[in-house]
Design brief:
By secondary structure, this protein is of the alpha+beta class. It has 17 helices and 24 strands. The strands form four sheets. The protein has an eight-stranded mixed beta sheet, sandwiched between helices. A seven-stranded mixed beta sheet has the order 9-15-14-13-10-11-12, sandwiched between helices. A five-stranded mixed beta sheet has the order 17-19-20-22-21. Helix 1 packs parallel to helix 3 and helix 16 packs antiparallel against helix 17. The two termini are 56 Å apart. 29% of the residues are buried.
Length: 578
């Protein structure tokens, strides 16, 4: 198994088998300068006892790689943690740590973890024989790597130095207390009282849809709603969802209360398993964890089993971290779903876009020897489809260069207003040749002055053409007379920025498409790859500019706009340097 280089296309995959996993871990280490890693309480002993990981530890120390490591330091793994510190690791303690992942500058790896029930079933086997990790998830998707770095930092900020934890264990100085509650009615009273007495923040994790309805019948959501609205308490709720719960959540949030945040997730997700405990954390000082005994019961008391109440700082903060980790995991899962969907859409679109001109070229090539009298017409068909194929290839290459930040710009100083005028004239001539009398393309230089930029003329033309092609394509689909109006002007008087607007009277931008308009594969058309606007954004931003879009206020069409830095300006052929 071979991982890709730092400039490789983004991808996510699951690796199976201890040999593949060890190979991937070694390559992960070879390409990293810094590594942030988390492991549960069993991880330190596994790392030290499994001989296959000796290479990793030796390589880490040899390469002097900076490592920050978080784990749940206990009496059982205390010695192993001290041994790990000899390999230049900075170790911190976070009670209840369950995550097992590592993140570097550009990559993320996470080992599969067992659920609570599976742990109990295989505990004896794990104690008898320590085995290397058999499965990991690998990704170099930038958004995911960035998010996991944030997750690690949230853990790191809430963890305590290893020396402090070593001292607590060795001297028996564990601050706070933890109590096991076996009487359900007492748990119920404590649950309600904790919610009522909150002063700053409430975190509530609900494990199931039935748990949501039980808490609603207790009046918990009314308490939390009032606390957020009247006391300004920050309330965050994590809950499964269905159509009924969505309506209840909508009713709870109908006051536009920014202090109340409810993050829902699909209970059917096979990747996110939150189905055993309710977690309540109040003011980051007290926690109540309630086990679920029988989720089918409607009454709160009948449904719950044992509960754990704690005022131990490290215990409470560990549940805060668990809560935030779950929120980020849900967001990550949603991102992976979107990324996978977009990737599949691109494969389908790209294969179609590649297949169509390729088949056409082959068909024309077969016709050429059979119909020599139509030679010129057939050659034009071959040229037209070859150009289309070249455009798709260039778009894919541009996307790769933009993502790897290797887009080369050949800058020169030129008059942007002249470039726009020339480009618009070319489009007009093309439209006139097609006898398109139901379409108008207009251009105005608002200030009637020359506006010079230092830019890559070809790339700016490419960006402008992509936007124009979009506007013209969608506007021409409407039955009314289509119109695209292009303007250029200084952003403000004496401003050092130029703004170009492309306004059309087409159907406007779809609400579902708007949030990802300038991302890869964003399209509502059956034609095209959805790469054009992503490339536009990359080109404009590479020149130090900005690009955006909005639907017109008159409900007809949309306006695309971009800004570029101004170098020279002038009127009546008198050019002045700004």
């Amino acid at each position: 198994m071979t991982l890709t280089s730092n400039n490789s296309p983004e991808r996510t995959e699951v690796l199976y088998g201890s040999e593949n996993v060890l190979d991937a871990l070694l390559q992960f280490v070879f390409k990293s300068k810094t590594i942030d890693s988390c492991g549960d309480s069993r991880a330190p002993s596994l790392i030290m006892e499994i001989k296959e990981y000796g290479k990793l530890l030796t390589e880490l120390k040899k390469r002097n790689i900076k490592i920050r490591y978080i784990t749940d330091i206990s009496k059982d793994n205390l010695g192993y943690c001290k041994d790990l510190m000899s390999f230049n690791m900075e170790i911190r303690h976070l009670e209840g740590m369950k995550a097992n992942f590592s993140v570097s500058e550009s990559e993320f790896m996470a080992s599969s973890t067992l659920s609570h029930g599976e742990e109990e079933e295989r505990e004896g086997e794990a104690q008898q024989s320590s085995r290397p990790i058999q499965q990991v998830i690998y990704t170099n998707v930038k958004d995911i790597v960035r998010q996991q770095k944030y997750v690690f930092e949230s853990f790191w900020n809430r963890s305590i130095p290893s020396d402090q934890r070593f001292k607590e264990i060795e001297e028996g100085d564990i601050i706070g207390s933890t109590e096991i509650i076996q009487i359900p009615i007492k748990t119920k009273e404590l649950f309600i009282n904790l919610v009522k007495k909150s002063k700053k923040e409430v975190l509530l994790l609900l494990p199931s849809i039935n748990a949501f309805f039980r808490e609603e019948r207790l009046g918990i959501f009314n308490y939390l709603k009032e606390s957020a609205l009247k006391k300004g308490i920050n309330v965050k709720i994590l809950t499964p969802t269905n159509d009924i719960i969505d309506k209840i959540i909508s009713n709870i949030k109908n006051n536009n209360n920014n202090n109340l945040v409810i993050q829902s997730f699909e209970n059917t997700s096979t990747d996110i398993k939150i189905n055993t405990i309710t977690i309540l954390v109040v003011d980051s000082k007290e926690s109540l964890v309630i086990e679920k005994k029988d989720d089918s019961k409607e009454d709160f008391i009948d449904a719950i089993g044992l509960a754990t109440y704690s005022t131990s700082k490290s215990t409470v903060l560990s549940y805060v971290s668990v809560f935030e980790s779950l929120i980020n995991q849900i967001k990550l899962y949603e991102q992976l779903k979107v990324h996978g969907k977009m990737q599949n859409e691109f494969i389908n679109i790209a294969s179609h876009e590649l297949r169509t001109p390729t088949h056409a070229i082959l068909a024309y090539s077969d016709l050429l020897p059979q119909h020599p009298e139509k030679r010129d017409e057939i050659i034009q068909g071959i040229k037209r489809n070859a150009t289309r194929l070249q455009k798709l290839t260039e778009d894919i290459l541009d996307v790769t260069k933009i993502e790897s930040k290797t887009l080369n710009l050949h800058k020169e100083i030129f008059d942007l207003s002249v470039l726009l005028s020339t480009t618009i004239d070319d489009y007009k001539n093309n439209l006139e040749q097609k006898d398109n009398d139901k379409f108008r393309l207009l251009y105005t230089n608002i200030n009637n002055e020359s506006l010079f930029v230092e830019a890559d003329c070809q790339k700016i033309t490419q960006a402008l053409s992509n936007i124009l092609n979009n506007s013209i394509f969608f506007t021409k689909r409407e039955k009314r007379v289509g119109e695209v109006y292009v303007t250029i002007e200084r952003k403000k008087t004496n401003s050092k920025e130029i703004i170009v607007n492309i306004k059309d009277n087409g159907p406007g931008i779809d609400d579902d498409l708007f949030p990802r308009l300038f991302t890869k594969f964003a399209t509502t058309s059956t034609k095209g790859t959805g790469l054009g606007l992503f490339i536009c954004k990359g080109i404009i931003e590479a020149h130090g500019g900005k690009i955006w879009a909005e639907n017109n206020k008159d409900d007809q069409g949309a306006t695309f706009a971009f800004i570029l830095p101004l170098v020279y300006s002038g009127s009546n052929n008198e050019y002045l340097k700004e």
